[in-house]
Amino acid sequence: MGKSKSSYASIEYRFIAKVVDLFGALCFQVGGAMLGFITVLSLNPEAPVDSPIFLNLLTQGFYFGILFWSFVYFIINVGVLQGYYGSTVGKWLFKIEVQDLNGNHLGFFKSVMRSVFSVFSFVPFMLGYLAIFWSQKRQCWHDLMIESKVVYIKSPIHLKLLEQYPVIALQGPVEEKESA
C-alpha cells in the first residue's frame, strides 16, 4: 500500500485470477444448492417425493441456496477481501491486488461498484477488457470508472518464469512512472 512505484498486472494473471474466483463462486453455488436440498428434505421428512408441492419446494430450496451462497461469496470475496485487503482469492494466489490510483485499498463500496461496473467491460464484445492492451496503466473500463489499477504485490512467479520461458507472458511488467 502507498508504494511510489508499482508494476501493473498482466492480462494473463488478471484472467486466471478471475477464473479462480469464478470457480470459487461455482463451489459456493453447488454447496448452496446442496444445502437448499438438504434443508427442504429435513423440513419435510414425511412429504411424498412425487408430490408437485414437494418438487416445487425442492426447486425453490435449490435456487435459494444458489442465490444466497453466491451473494455470500460475492460479499466476502469482493466486498471484504478485495475491498479491505486488496485481493480476491484468485488475485491473492497470483499476488496481484486492486488499488486506487494513490496505491490504497478501495474499501467495501468502491470494490463492490468496481465488480458491478465490470459488466460494462464485458457486454460490448469484451471491449472494456481489451482496453488493457492500449491503456498505459493496463486498466479495463471498470478500472477507469472507479479510478483503480491492478498491480503485482510481490515478486510473482510470472517474473521468474519469464526469464526462462518468455512465451509464458505476452505482457511483461510495466513500471509505473514516478510523478514529480
Structure description:
The chain is mainly alpha-helical and 180 residues long. It has one domain (7-160). Helices cover 58% and strands 8% of the residues. It has helices spanning 11-43, 52-85, 89-93, 108-122, 127-130, 141-146, 157-164; strands spanning 7-8, 96-100, 148-152, 174-175. The strands form two sheets. Strands 1-4 form a two-stranded antiparallel sheet. α1 (11-43) packs antiparallel against α2 and α2 (52-85) crosses α4 (108-122). The two termini are 19 Å apart. The model has no long low-confidence stretch (mean pLDDT 84).
What attributes characterize this protein structure?
180 residues, two-stranded antiparallel ribbon, 7 helices, 4 strands
Contiguous low-pLDDT stretches (5 residues minimum) are none
The amount of beta strand, in percent, is 5-15%
Tally of domains: 1
Structural class: mainly alpha
How would the global form be characterised? elongated
Strand arrangement across the biggest beta sheet: 1-4
Give a short synopsis of this structure:
Helices cover 58% and strands 8% of the residues.
Layout of helices and strands, plus pairs?
Layout lengths: L6 E2 L2 H33 L8 H34 L3 H5 L2 E5 L7 H15 L4 H4 L10 H6 L1 E5 L4 H8 L9 E2 L5
Antiparallel strand pairs: 1-4, 2-3
